[in-house]
Amino acid sequence: MIGLMSDSHDNLKAIRKAVKLFNSKKVELVLHAGDLISPFTAQEFIKLKSPMIAVYGNNDGEREGLRKAYQNMCYLEDFKEISVDERTIALFHGTNISLIEALSASGRYDVVVHGHSHQNRVENEKTLTINPGETCGYLTGDKTVALLDPIDLSYEILFL
Questions:
Q1: Do strands 111-113 and 155-159 pair parallel, antiparallel, or not at all (unpaired)?
Q2: To which H or E segment does residue 104 belong?
Q3: What is the pLDDT of residues 87-116, one digit of tens each?
């Protein structure tokens, strides 16, 4: 099982809840689709009992500080291609809707995970496209993450 999250926006309380949830579900990997915001958030993510892969979001202005804070957990970039259980996953923040659509239609990826809009959204056409919503809850009032089974591509959106 893979934990999916995005747009945590340095809301430490929400991050703690997400980490606790992912640890209780014994996820094998956590994918964060950007907008970590502050280097001090690493102090909560280090409590994950699984590896984490994260990408930068459009609000991650302190990139050097984030890179240093997260260097023992993951190497931050703008885009990641991940292989899990013979599935190929694209991970990025997703500020460009055309890019989301192009990656989803390309046939290269089994799953495209993105964030940015703060709205949880799932489309299952040629490619499973998932936005787990906002972990922070700042815009919608809903703090959400998702679980993804990389084998059968089943998923669940969870409220924190």
A1: unpaired
A2: helix 97-105
A3: 999 999 998 889 999 999 999 999 999 999
